[in-house]
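Hi support team,

I submitted a single chain yesterday and got back a structure, but I'm not sure I'm reading the token output correctly. Could someone confirm the output below corresponds to the sequence I sent? I've pasted both exactly as they appear in my results page.

Thanks,
R.
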Amino acid sequence: MKRYVLIIFAALLCTVSCIEKPFVLPWDPVTPVDPDPQPQPGPEPLFKGKPRYVWIDASANFQYFANDAAYIASDVARIKEMGFTDIIVDVRPTEGTVLFKSSTAPEARRLAAWVKDPSGGSSYKFVDRTATFDYLQAFIDAARKEGLRVNAAINTFVCGYGGYYGLENEGPIFLPKTSQYNVPASWATVDNYSSGVASSFYDGVQGTVFMNPANPDVQTYMLKIIAELAKYDLDGILLDRCRYDDEGMMSDFSEESKAAFTEYLGQAPSKWPVFNAGTSDIPGGMTAEQKAWMSFRVKVIHDFVEKAAKTVHNTNGKIRFGCYVGAWYESYYPTGVNWASPKHSPCYNWADSDYHNYGYADHCDFMMLGCYASIKGIYGKTEWTMQGFCTKARTLLCGDTEFAGGPDVGNPEGWEKGGQGALIPKTIDACINAADGYFVFDLCHIRMYDYWSNFKQGFDDYLKTL
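Hi R., thanks for writing in. Yes, this is the structure output for that exact sequence:
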């Protein structure tokens, strides 16, 4: 469940041929599609103060929620008691399966997670789902009963998870071609490894398998899933992992990307791939063509975000649309994401004069920023402090969208073993006063390290200042 770079150790070119049925756009052809839907208004003032969001990761919490709607209701009630105003429910984990009703993607019947043993230890294994109730709807029902807002999050450009520790593979890309839910292997990203260009999907792959964001069929597939999700009674939809794969700068150098980049340039690139094999970071003395490649990638993501926003708004005009991103903007460029406002002009050696045009903040109604600093980085003015992340985001976003920022209280340095309850109120103070709201990852850590009362104290302290 960690949100950090996974290293893929080997690559073999995997070529799969198949006959694919054409996809259709997910909009009702009878109802005209608004070419430029207006951003949705912010949350109604149901609560005192700024919004306070808690993320509920699918895999990490599956052992509690997969088969027990009563447990869902109990935790949601406790979340309300702590002082949160919003839940964010992960309903498309990295496996590419879903936890809501879909005719496009397969339902998640098992997820791999670290599960506590009776001895007090933990083991990595599958948690099976045998229940038949609608997982997302159970959260919606519980949230409505408690008066909380409910947002759904999906991992976007993912399609499977190669098993670790001897576990089987899971996800639509691993399904037989005859399955209605199969995702073609040709959709997987093609990366520029040190050994050469090859598919990221190969025999023995481990970790998340990403799809190529520049592939039109991939985009249409995801828009269909987003449209299905928007039929629920939600307050918001967030895209997570709406980016290039974990190999970053080495992705994607498929023929589809080459054709799209050629169209973007107006001519064939003079060198392909545009970087030397195995290039994982910005090289010195970048060429104009290499900088154009960086702008092309963020345009791909920008254009998809724009389409996704329109899909949500045209399916259900009451739902707000947004994205989760890592707040470390200065080093976020390998993902192919420019989450800033197009009014912000970044001055970096990897950004040409077009780069800023593809900032997508103006297409979001709200945004979650992962301000994932260590326990020593709560207050400050620079990146890699929680307060600094939020303060800088205010400048980057130029008022185009509301944003909430906050910590991962289970993974960064100092948070890994718990015992940091006294710091929770400080993270709230540092972030909520610098941002438009507070966000924390993840509920599993609150439960694991018994931070319930610490969050209640932090929110109570904040509300006393209003």
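A quick pointer for reading it: The two ends are 35 Å apart (CA to CA). Let us know if anything else looks off.

Best,
Support desk
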